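RECORD CONTENTS
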Amino acid sequence: MGFHRGSNRYATTRAVELDLAAAATYAQNFGDVVHAGDIVRWLDEEPTPSVDVVLGGPPCRGFSLIGKRDPLDLRNTLWRPYVEVVRRAMPRAFVMENVPALLRSGEFAAFVETFASGDLADYEIRARILNAADFGAAQTRKRVIVIGVRRDLDHPGHPLPASGPRATVRDAFAGIRGFAGDTALPPQKTQFRGVWRPGAFKGRDLHITRDWSPLYQQRFRSIPYGGNRHDLPDELSMD
C-alpha cells in the first residue's frame, strides 16, 4: 500500500501470499491478482512475469527477537524463493523487508553471497534499518529494508527521515469515534477462493477491542506510564 501511495506509475502484476485471509485482503485492495498459496509451488506452476520492481517480505518469525529464533526454522530460508523470483524476472529493482535481526544471521550472509556471481551480480544491494516513526507512523517499528538496483541504473539509496516531531498515538487517535467496548466485528462475509471469510471491512469497522484475559489485564496494570513489556515483573513476563 505504501508503495502504491508513493507512486502512481506502477500497478501490481502478480502477488503471492500463503495466508488465505491476507490474500483476500490483498485482492480487496489491489484486485484479484494474488496467488493464494505456497510461493515454491507458484514458481513450479506459473511463469514468472517480467516486471520493473519486485517487492517482498519473507517471514520474520525465525529472526524476530520476541520469537524463539530457531536457526532450523524452515521459514528462515524463504528468502530463497524470493530471490528466485528476482532471478527469473530480472527487474530494474527489488525491495525486501524483514526484522533488523536478519542482518546478524547466517541467512543474510547467504543472501548477500547469492548476489556475488552470475546474473544476480548485476545488482547493487544496500541494506539499512529504518524506523517507521521517522516516516509518519505513530509507532516505533524498526525494519531492515534491502534495496537492490541493477548496476546500469542509479541506486536511489534509502529515504531520509522526515524532519519535525514524530507523530504520537494521540495524533493517530484524533477523530476516532468513542465506543462502548465492542468486541465483535460486523457480520458481513465475502467469498474468496471458494471460502467464506469475514469482511470486507473498512477501517472504521475495525475499531473494536479484545476481550482481554485476566493475565493480560494484570500486565497492563503493571506497566508504568511511558513503559513497555520490558518493565513487567518476572512472573508476568512475556519472554
Notes: Helices lie at 2-6, 20-30, 39-45, 79-89, 106-114, 169-173, 214-222. The first helix runs from residue 2 to 6. The chain has seven helices and eight strands.
